[in-house]
Amino acid sequence: MNRRLFLKSSALIGCSAAAHPLLNSIAFASAPGENRLVVIILRGAMDGLDAFQPYGDPNLRALRRTISTGPEDGAHDLDGFFALHPALSPLLPLWRSGEMGFAPAVSTPYRDKRSHFDGQDMLEAGTGTDLGEGSQRDGWLNRLLQQMPGVQSETAYAVGVEEMRILSGEAPSMSWAPELRLELSPQAQMLLERVYHDDPLFQAAGAQAMEIASMEIGGEKEEGGPTRDARALARFAADRLNQETRIASFSLPGWDSHARQPQVISRALERLADAILTLRDGLGRNWSRTTVLAMTEFGRTVRENGSGGTDHGTGGAMLMAGGAVRGGKALGRWPGLGEGDLYAGRDLMPVRDIRAYAAWALRDLFDVPRDLLETAVFPGLDMGGNPRILA
Question: What is the pTM of this model?
């Protein structure tokens, strides 16, 4: 079987290097300059009150019985008011060096329906309205690419069973989503290695994808399949960012914690910490020019439910990391957890649009004009004052 026939039979003709069949839910684009942006979508609604625990609020402990509420439960004090979830302890050195921060009580304009699908669509579309019939369906990173002079799509690509809406739009991008997960036997891997051996476009990506397929985490392959492994996605992203790529986005699932939240969120937070530290290690000196934004579709209820978990809420939290960020602090105002402070009597009240933080990061990283950010990239957004995410 020759290479052309093999690729044609595999439906891979025309794919770029990032379109290797073992890569999943990851997108890239190149941009002028040396600053780098990584957007991580946390699918499933991360509980910001658990990741960054406001133990200084006197109402927190009464609202949560089995969920950690501060240093007394093993969380790490950050500033005398917030504590870091124990599963994020590997990121404490970043906090102390000013390379990690967070914004509590943030959300998109999405309200009340609390649907994962709609919430994620609005987060990635970057719009301020529900995505109804005839509304804007492209993603905010794609619209950013259309507004940045000199930007060329390098490998704007989503690979896997789910679309990365954040990169959908008129700027060139592609996607490839197999109906079934591709599991390769050792013989198939050897065949792919021979197919890609003399092809400069596919050779490096193919070798990395083979590493992803065979990688073991903690002595054994992570449950759920290696293509979703956070370290593998981050390692591949770092490699591309060390070359011409300047913007990357991928998603990490597993944040829906209706029951047994301590176990569910601990695993998810560990994966997030792994991804961030893998990016740092892989980027090397380029870490100093990198900003990582970890965003989720909405928060969770302030009250613990009867299953030891939390339900879909409103206000959440956004994590930011990187050598370019001004970390070591919580950004924004705390709304409080008193009965009269809650949204709809059940959720953390959002005090700032999460899109404003992303917009200011884009303004300071890539010098995108504010008027374009508030109209073309994030339609209808009022960015407000600069929270000064970047150092």
Answer: 0.79
